[in-house]
Amino acid sequence: MIRAEFFANAQGEILGFSITGHAGLGEEGEDILCAAVSSAAYMTANTVLEILRITPVSLRVEEGDMLFRVAERDARPCMTLFSGFKLHLLGLEEQYPEHLCVRYTEV
């Protein structure tokens, strides 16, 4: 199962996310859910890094694991992007509830 966790501050602004695990819907390299989640996660992180030019306070990328978090001062410029990523994952969770779990943590 893929576990996606979004980190939000007390005001509800999303500060980042953690993605761990594998969906298990297909062979490695052929799993459509893993591909959809990882593609969207990389697009989100790369846009923050390369387009918005924001340096994260936490960044870790390993096989089946990504952690990306920005400072509170950078929450506003990232808001639309993080919200779109969350919406995308919630839609995927609705389609694949046995393989994807999305949750929120206040930090």
Mean pLDDT: 95
- CATH class category label: Alpha Beta
| Beta-strand percentage range | 25-35%
Structural class: alpha+beta
**What share of residues is helical?**
25-40%
Write the layout of secondary structure elements.
Blueprint: E1 2-8, E2 14-20, H1 32-51, E3 58-62, E4 65-69, H2 75-95, E5 100-106
Parallel strand pairs: 1-5
Antiparallel strand pairs: 1-2, 2-4, 3-4
Helix pairs in contact: 1-2
List the main descriptive attributes of the protein structure presented here:
single chain; 107 residues; alpha+beta; Alpha-Beta Plaits; 2 helices; 5 strands
Task: Please characterize this protein's 3D structure.
The protein has about 110 residues and is an alpha+beta fold. It has one domain (about 1-105): Cysteine protease Prp (Alpha-Beta Plaits), CATH 3.30.70.1490. Helix content is about 40%, strand content about 30%. It has helices at about 30-50, 75-95; strands spanning about 1-10, 15-20, 60, 65-70, 100-105. A five-stranded mixed beta sheet has the order 3-4-2-1-5, with helices on one face. A hairpin with a 5-residue loop joins strand 1 and strand 2.
